[in-house]
Write a structure and sequence with these properties.
homodimer, 16 helices, 535 residues, globular, alpha+beta
Chain lengths: 535, 535
């Protein structure tokens, strides 16, 4: 007799890092990988630590006791509370790795439907608890961390994960907020459709989280954020349903959807949305182009973004990032390392040869050297980069264990300010690291009027003092971005971590308007307090 | 000695209809044109009336007296008050034609800069007057009509009409809100750039008005509304400047711009905006395709809108509209009249032949018959339709004089509901007209998930009772649109005329949030009261 698949225990996510428990490599593998990473980065060898086991984590007792009407959807066990108290920023992983949970959530609710959710919100209002919407738990900006001043209920929406309805004619689908990337794509595949929204967190993050945080996705141009795929949204506020009409376009007042998109859970809990979906692409063209410098590559990318050719992929990696991710395999040193443009087109309707040809002419106008052109396939450089991109969150757990500081941050800025901003961010971030470490940059999304640079910082961690180190790097980089005309976030959201710079970026009357709007729909201020605005 | 150009009187806009005074044809021409129109439409001949002259209009005396600090920018003369009290809807033109101004604005302020504007708003708050932002005065939804319950100041922004700065690298321009379409295009032309936003009101309407009303423009697909061209907005609220950062894209909270876009003057007075501009197109492809029915044409248009080909022009005219505008010249009767698709592509960067070829394949898949394919030029059908489109507001003045009721309204709806909605609107509107008259339809903008149908109603006017007739038609059409899943407006805005249906369309918590947001930035409720929400 063997255990059938049905009775095997469900896979559990790691309590401190990325992925499932069964994906964590054994300690000896982590040690070897960490040592290799330190060597590749030129850091001296260091001890590899092990995470504090779940059982050894000390949690303050919960302050909440669910009423009978909610008991069946509520959990207060150690694993549940630990895995719902942090997101997945470097700071979160370090704290969880070291077993430090000073202010965990008190209770996790798993509503199965809107009726459950409505009861849970009413109870939070009654007992004065914060209600924190939780999707994939992949926030990297402190967007789901409990506030310190009151008990908290984390509302995990992952039981609401269905594609409820598909309108093939209009190419739209009604999808519940808790559906993960793979979950919703699998259900759409039965209809020959796809949402094609692939953030780095795709495996775990959810539709509701994407909408609440204005997530950035697959497309490097044109439809860069989830915003453009939202046809209508349904959210539950403490004062009723905020549900917009399914519309392909409208000019009826300020968009009610655009007010919810990016609201990070402070106005209501998104429960479902009609999304614009697509036929799967049948035509693909992909290539890689090398440039002598990031600056000349950026000029080519600007020409591409202003051409109206609309590449689906148009990611420019600086020399260090191209080398670190294996996208460029030849050996080059320092400034001589070429920048790499990963360029791709896709369509469900038509051949893309003419578009790619014109795009390559534009690259050649800026002294780009085409390294490979392939139809209907990924170029080797793109494959290497893509693998590195998808592995990055897993790798980070190993880097934390191996004492390597790793942080990413991103912005968007108009073209006229890009070069100076990127240069200053590199410089000040290196200064904040005390001269150690590497700061790489890529352009992840591009627009006719500007680009979104994304920075990766790797440095020897100050063991035991990582949170202070993180704070110094974050402050240095964010200060430069704010002063240099960028946005404090292009697609990572604001949460709690970006508040100081966000508060300066947003217009003051808008902040007053948003605060008043929240008070109108959430008078008790239970929804994700401290995120975006002060309670 | 001859009069120099400098001392000739400035051109004045007609006090009751569209265009300048010197563009109004002499009475005998109006009589001939009105008679010809009635004959073409199959209506019995009728008397042609003349407008009440400006001097014969009786106005209630103004209730406001500008303080010394504002006197130099304020006017209370008859012409100023009359030309700032109505927009340009059929209802507005009829009332002005008959000299009926029961509730005119009390005073017109012409701020030269933000300092003037700030003083004007402070004075309105002090004396309890409504402040009504006014751009081109082309609202067709009662968006700038004074409220009945208090004195009103109309704030005419047309003195703030400059292109202040151009960023060629980022292809963006800082433009003042009072710049008209031709005015801003002329200034951009010096830099080789264009905004390419061409609503029907282009000659007179202004950038600020476009942003405040989410105006629809040139492009039939992709960038259909002004929304997509806004990089940042600056607006003056009674509680300070609401100015966003210039950004190509952002994920930092709900977009502050998207809250102002479509706010119709209730949150602040838009003073300037950074706009995404473009190189003028060098490549154009245009053609016209005939379909046996509007329905088969709509199927082809759906395929086009879901193809990712992004035509700049993709307007489908039903048989009656194609015939009435002269776009189809062959004689066909009734249901046999073919529907016409005006299809065009344009680019500043690349040849469009492959795109047009694929688009025509899609049309042929739906039994479309290509009538002309021409590079770098307008097809004759497009030219005829475009001429009719641009002349329509002028023609309407003649129709009003000739006793012809003319109303247009529009919506957007998902593809799955389009056919039924269009059919029901035609049917109920004809019923509301008592069986007389013509209801034509075109699709003006199309999306992967739906389309924007635009209706034109022509019928014998109930002389002297036109306002009641208008109310019956408006209620019938709007009721069908609301019940059929459409938006009450795709690009005409809400104003006062669409309020009853808008109030039902928008989510209730959103209305509460918007009301609270307004109260936060305009606590005295002076800004355009009664538009979008109740005071």
């Amino acid at each position: 007799m063997s255990l059938s698949r049905d009775v095997s225990p469900p896979r559990r996510r790691k309590h401190w890092g990325w992925g499932f428990e069964d994906q964590q490599p054994p300690p000896e593998q982590v040690e070897a990988a960490a040592a290799a990473a330190r060597e590749q980065l030129g850091f001296a060898p260091a001890e590899v630590e092990r995470p504090v086991p779940l059982g050894a984590i000390e949690l303050p007792p919960t302050r909440l006791d669910a009423p009978a009407s909610l008991a069946h959807i509520c959990a207060t066990g150690r694993y549940e509370r630990v895995t719902h108290s942090y997101g997945k920023s470097y700071r979160d992983v370090v704290r969880a790795f070291r077993g430090r949970f000073d202010n965990p959530t008190d209770l996790v609710a798993h509503p199965a439907d809107e009726a459950d959710l409505e009861r849970a919100l009413a109870w939070c209002e009654e007992v004065g608890a914060a209600a924190i919407p939780f999707g994939g738990g992949t926030s990297v900006v402190g967007g789901l961390e409990p506030p310190g001043d009151r008990p908290s209920v984390t509302v995990d929406l992952r039981s609401m994960d269905r594609v409820v309805e598909v309108d093939r004619t209009s190419r739209a689908a009604l999808i519940q907020a808790g559906a993960t990337g793979p979950g919703l794509e699998e259900q759409l595949r039965d209809h020959g459709l796809t949402l094609r929204h692939f953030p780095q967190s795709f495996e775990y993050s959810t539709l509701g989280g994407w909408i609440a945080t204005r997530a950035g996705g697959h497309y490097a141009t044109l439809h860069t954020h989830i915003d453009d795929f939202v046809e209508s949204v349904r959210a539950l506020t403490p004062r009723g349903l905020w549900e917009s009409r399914r519309l392909p376009g409208s000019g009826a007042g300020p968009s009610p959807d655009r007010m919810l998109i990016g609201s990070e859970g402070i106005l209501g809990v998104i429960t479902e949305a009609w999304m614009r979906v697509q036929d799967a692409p049948r035509f693909k063209e992909s290539t890689a182009v090398l440039f002598d410098s990031f600056e000349s590559g950026a000029e080519a990318v600007r020409a591409l973004s202003q051409s109206g050719l609309h590449p689906s992929n148009c990611r420019l990696l600086d020399g260090d990032e191209a080398a670190l991710t294996g996208a460029v395999r030849e050996r080059h040193e320092g400034a001589a390392r070429p920048a790499l443009l990963v360029l791709g087109f896709e369509s469900a309707d038509h051949q893309l040869g003419p578009r790619l040809s014109r795009a390559l002419e534009l690259c050649e106008d800026h002294r780009g050297r085409v390294s490979a052109r392939e139809s209907c396939a990924r170029s080797p450089a793109e494959s290497a980069w893509r693998d590195a991109f998808l592995q990055a969150p897993y790798l980070r757990d190993t880097l934390v264990a191996g004492g390597i500081f790793v942080e990413t941050f991103e912005t968007a800025v108009t073209w006229d300010r890009l070069e100076e901003l990127v240069g200053t961010v590199r410089e000040r971030t290196r200064e904040a690291l005390g001269g150690d470490g590497t700061v790489t940059c890529r352009l992840t999304h591009v627009y006719p009027d500007g680009a979104a640079p994304y920075f990766t910082v790797l440095a020897p961690a100050r063991r035991g003092d990582e949170l202070a180190q993180w704070g110094e790097v974050k402050a240095a980089a964010s200060g430069v971005i704010a002063a240099g005309g960028g946005t404090i976030t292009h697609h990572h959201a604001v949460g709690r971590d970006h508040r100081p710079w966000y508060d300066r970026q947003r217009p003051a009357p808008f902040a007053a308007a948003l605060r008043a709007a929240k008070a109108a729909v959430d008078p008790a201020g239970i929804l994700n307090p401290g995120v975006l605005i002060d309670p």
